[in-house]
Amino acid sequence: MARFRFALQRVLDRRLDEEEVKRRALASVEGQRRKLEQSLRDRQAEIAQGRDAWRDGLVGVIDPAALRHHAVAGVGLMRKAQRTVLEMAGLEKALVKTRAELVEAARARRTLEILREQRLAVHHAIEASHERAGMDEMAANNARRNREGEEAIPV
């Protein structure tokens, strides 16, 4: 039986490699997004803690300098949180682009895999045809030998 050899195997291997690169790029961008989300959660927690500290400062004697300090710190944290949100928005565009590239790479790879499967099916059909032809020839030879009185070869 002849061995199947896909003529475009190198191209398929290359597309598999490209897909893996795209998958890693997507994982990297998603990792950055997770870091930014965690940073945003941390900023929100800091803002909540600052607000609680500010409320505690409103009981009893009010120190205007401490209130001003908390207000300035709160504004600074809000700016950092807004910056993080803007970074996340920019990263979301990169995430969508990277996902689209991964889908395209997977589609290109899958196209070649389908072609390989089709060619493998054709190869198997040709091999089965050759095997049937060989079996037919052996059966015909056995029938001829039986007619001529020779000993038949078991099939």
CATH topology of the domain at 9-109: Helix Hairpins
Taking all residues together, what is the mean pLDDT? 89
Shape verdict:
rod-shaped
Note the total helix count: 2
Rg result = 36 Å
How far apart are the termini? 18 Å
Q: Could you spell the SSE succession in H and E letters?
A: HH
The fraction of residues assigned to DSSP E strands is under 5%
Q: Which class of the domain at 9-109 in CATH terms?
A: Mainly Alpha
Please name the CATH architecture of the domain at 9-109: Orthogonal Bundle
Describe the main β-sheet briefly: none
Helix content: over 70%
Residue windows where pLDDT falls under 50 for at least 5 positions: none
Structural topology:
Layout: H1 9-56, H2 64-148
